[in-house]
Amino acid sequence: MNTWRTSILAICLLSFFGATSLPAFAADGVVSPAAVGWGNLLVPGLGATIRGHPGRGLLESTLEIGTYYGGTFYSREGSFTIDGTVLVPSGKNVTKPLMGQVMQEFGLKLHMWNTFYNYQQASMHPGNADLELKYQQPLYNGKWDDVLLAPFKWKNLSSPWVYLPILASAGYLAYSYRTTDVVRQNHFSSPGEEALYGFVQGVSIPLGSSFGEEVLYRGFIQREMRYYTDSIPLSILTQTAIFVLNHPPDLRPASAFGGVYFGLMANHFDGDLEPGIASHFWIDFVSGVFVYLSYRKVEGKKVPFSAQLSIPF
Amino acid sequence: MVARTPYFTVMAREYLDDRVTEDKPIILTPLTLYGSVQIGGSHVSDPRRPEFVGVTAKESDAFNLRANAAAQRWFPFGSVSLNYTLENNHYFSASHFDLMKHDMDVPVAIHVGANEDIVFRPLGSFSLVGGQNYQSVVGLGVQGIVFRSTYRQSVQGLIYKDRIYPSSLEGLDGTHYRFEYNWDFFPLSWFFQVLLWIEHQNADNDVVNGVPSPIPYSHTDVGLRVNLQHEFKWLSLGLNSRLISRTDSDTSTYAVRTTGQVITKRRQDFDVVLQPNLSIPLYGTVQLVGWYEWQRIFSNMGPIDYADRNYQNHVVGVALKATVSNY
Predict the structure, then answer these.
(1) β-strand B286-299 against B268-283: which pairing, if any?
(2) Which residue from A minimizes the CA distance to B146?
(3) Segment holding B222, helix H or strand E
(4) CA-CA distance, B208 to B203, in Å (whole number)?
(5) Pairwise CB contact (< 8 Å): A46 & B144
(6) Which residues in chain A show pLDDT less than 50?
(7) A contacts of B108 (beta carbons < 8 Å)
(8) Is B200 in Cβ contact with A15 (below 8 Å)?
(9) By C-alpha distance, which of B192, B195, B196, B213 is closest to B204?
(10) Is A69 on the interface with B (CB under 8 A)?
(11) In terms of DSSP bridges, do strands B108-113 and B262-265 run parallel, antiparallel, or are they unpaired?
(12) Closest-CA residue in chain A for B217?
């Protein structure tokens, strides 16, 4: 069984237990936040629909599924990862595969945000006030613009929890960039192709990761697991396990570290996800810059540093 | 409970439309049982299944059997059901396309609100064509259902894996990701259903040992089904329609049959079905049903391409349908 199916099965099992954890008789219009979150995670639009907003559910699902599967038309597919499935070939024009990757990134991360949003709205319903008091991790109640702006707020950037991992990962990436051998390829990309590559690495992936992943893994899954198990380590390990399974194999060690660290941050800041969002964004941004420079390097183009690196595609 | 049982909603509609005039108390037990059998005959202009390209089939009369059995056990948290459907089509002049299909699912419904359910639905099916193993399917569905006074809405995600046994069709094996959005409306004397879906198949054999297949099968379907039914006192008239747009995820590379020139082309099909139908209550729970069905697949893969995917079929049928239940 591949990791994609394993993680779907894990989410199904968790959603089953989540759905059964609510009181037997709810008042009209009150739905279980757990059912909304887990159900929406598996089926786009489900959360809004059972919250009584079918139009929003249809819009969410159309955008998420349309962009995700639309992305498959641009290149052959590989295994599922947290950033999509399309394969980016080496030594060829990568415009179409990158377009597919951007579309899949948008669809996936919007799905993650919408899963959290519907969970958040169901949790904030007055009919669930008593249930909310039982949750150990406070609910993050930021809106979409709070999440987008979190990486640029000084209150987040000035925390050592945020800037220390950014500096540490930047140092590691710079060292790796300078010491890894280059594998030259024959393809010489056009300026447009290169700009698109830079956009994917420097904007699309960091923004998608910080916008969708933190609210889903730390804001929803970790919070629910803490409620089920009343254990901080178990809640962090569970969301980390799913986070790791959804990454490609070569990124799993780093994502395991990230899952645990961002989980500890969510716990340290009492459910405030914005420091974690800021940290996640800037780590991915710095990584994206080095990958972009490496892309130029393997084509024999000038780069600011005398760098040596082979990149995975 | 009535709204959460498909067979109860049928019964309620019949009662509200004056088709059932005799008042009888409903017996509500923890276990609801239901069964139906439909036996009839039809005339089919092309019994060939569309995926069997390059094979011809004579038009044929057919014997049709469809049987359904369902049990639903009620619990405080929701219900657990077992549904089984058997479908058998025997074509007298094209027996190599005879169909025998078994479908089963085990929905576990959990109340997540006063009028909202989440359903976990393991499912499987096995079918034979012409007496030979044809397809097996194993999967899991997760469904959210909202019950309102005049309509029911559901959203379902399905992941299933299928295996196609004939070696000529093994490229079709794959994992399917299907998302369905369904509305059932129940205005008095009418039934109106709209189902929208998108299904992506990630084919298993598009890339074998790192080598891309020249004819890949990964594709995405977008579908719309609209069913309309009006109940009169002595009969009901309906129109079922379906439209599916299929687009391959990648282009196919092949030699054109007429010139031998190698080209690349992305397969795109439109599959249209229209089916007017009627049903006449005869006695008790026995009904006479009749239908005409027109199916046409318009494909950009024609006679000069690697396979002609265009297809047309007409079916005229009549059957008797009987239902039994313990309520």
Answers:
(1) antiparallel
(2) A50
(3) strand B219-231
(4) 11
(5) yes
(6) 1, 24, 307-313
(7) 16
(8) no
(9) B213
(10) yes
(11) unpaired
(12) A76
